[in-house]
UniProtKB/TrEMBL annotation, chains A, B:
PROSITE patterns in the cross-refs: NUDIX
Name of the protein: NUDIX domain-containing protein
Native species: Christiangramia antarctica
Superkingdom of source: Bacteria
Pfam families in UniProt: NUDIX, WHD_NrtR
InterPro entries for this protein: NUDIX_hydrolase-like_dom_sf (IPR015797), NUDIX_hydrolase_dom (IPR000086), WH-like_DNA-bd_sf (IPR036388), WH_DNA-bd_sf (IPR036390), WHD_NrtR (IPR054105)
Transmembrane regions: none
Residue intervals of the Nudix hydrolase domain: 10-142
Length: 229, 229
DNA sequence: CCAAAAGTGTTACGCCTACACCCATGA
DNA sequence: TCATGGGTGTAGGCGTAACACTTTTGG
């Protein structure tokens, strides 16, 4: 049972990535159109198999870089999926990861190479295998995590307006948020740097750009502060 | 890369169980003394390998039943651990599960057969591999989960006193809780059945026994209520 | 009658929510 | 000058935390 390593069955181990991006108004995910069997031509998460010389985090990172070209991305392990017939071709367990990227950073060529496309979370197509469940679980985790840790900024460019930040949270939580309450809360936490610079694209008046002050956040966190939205 | 299933390396897939119990005053975990290599004689979580004809949940359940003899236990997948040299003998990925059992239900014979022992969470020995990290992560998850869902009852006998319930939460959260506030909160949720029966073991006066009303909880939950402690 | 645990309500504070008007600018 | 989005403050309600005394009964 426990005292015998080698007689057990071997099973394939895959990693699939739910890649989130935020495009002005909408939370999106990056999907690929499979050009190989099984389920060729269907939409799917980007995935790959774990290699013997890497751990799961590294595999997830490798897969993400392969599709987006972006390094040093926020990623977190989500869950492992193991239904026996989840992959009709082989017995495969998949460990799902989700990643938060600044959508502007992705590499167009790679996206094309993999026939990948950004979909609004609310309008994404049916996916192969159990990938729909993975996405659903990832969204729930994202909602929880973004309300407890300042990771939402990973989805925005380094400089962003308060309105962009608010829209981001509205799209993640799928609910309207009061403008003043939102800003009051954010300001009360005192973890942003307000720049003198303005973003003039969204209005005539222009709106001030802000940056997440990671150093300050870390200091405050060490002193017992916790992010909360 | 993605379009080739069979050339990837095969890797062993294990499941390890963090088994929680509550013994009057203390949160405990059930550990086994390994009577096989590697790390023979050291303390460890109960584990086993995934079989081809079962999914991860089933494997975790099988492993739990093997050690405790108890079926229909609350279990939840925790995380997958994949450090390359986590197991010095073989490249093994482990998916950790945690289980909540009524400590009175365990089977003494099986416990002896596996040289298993209950340890206070606060006094548990050093474990093999990365099992210490698994336990730490499981406790964090348990803290989170028990404060958001009524799963603490899984650690108690069907009939319990308010004081037992409070001590349970105190031991999970590792902090004192005000008696009146605790009872007020629990009563406000209105998900317990107060019995006429008293438990006479803990005091001369005796204290009323309660049961978790799962039906009522489910009804309330369907109407938007959520458990919160 | 004494020790030991059970049982029971109220007040104060802080946090969260709801809410409306003026400002700056380009067209 | 007007249309559009940006920016700002407060009052009330709700939930949470702090807090102490009486009851029961076996020894």
């Amino acid at each position: 049972m426990l005292n015998n390593y080698s007689t057990e069955d071997k099973i394939l181990l895959a990693v699939d990535c739910i890649i989130f991006g935020f495009d002005k108004e909408d939370l999106k995910i990056l999907l690929i159109k499979r050009d190989f069997e099984p389920e060729k031509g269907k939409w799917s998460l980007m995935g790959g198999f774990l290699r013997k010389q890497e751990n799961l985090d590294q595999a997830a990172d490798r897969i993400l870089v392969t599709l987006t070209g972006i390094h040093n991305v926020y990623m977190e392990q989500l869950h492992s999926y193991s239904k026996i017939d989840r992959d009709p071709a082989e017995r495969t367990i998949s460990v799902a990861y989700y990643a938060l990227i600044n959508i502007e950073d992705h590499n167009e060529e790679l996206i094309e190479q993999y026939s990948a496309k950004w979909f609004k979370v609310s309008e994404s197509p049916k996916l192969i295998f159990d990938h729909d469940i993975m996405v659903k679980n990832a969204i729930n985790r994202l909602r929880y995590k973004t309300s407890k840790e300042p990771i939402g900024f990973e989805l925005l460019p380094p400089k962003f307006t308060m309105r962009q930040l608010q829209k981001l949270y509205e799209s993640i939580l799928d609910e309207k948020i009061d403008k003043r309450n939102f800003i009051n809360k954010i300001n009360a936490m005192d973890i942003l740097i307000k720049l003198d610079e303005k973003d003039m694209n969204s209005s005539r008046k222009g709106s001030f750009l802000h940056m997440f002050d990671e150093q300050k956040y870390k200091r405050k966190k060490a002193e017992g502060f916790s992010f909360k939205l």
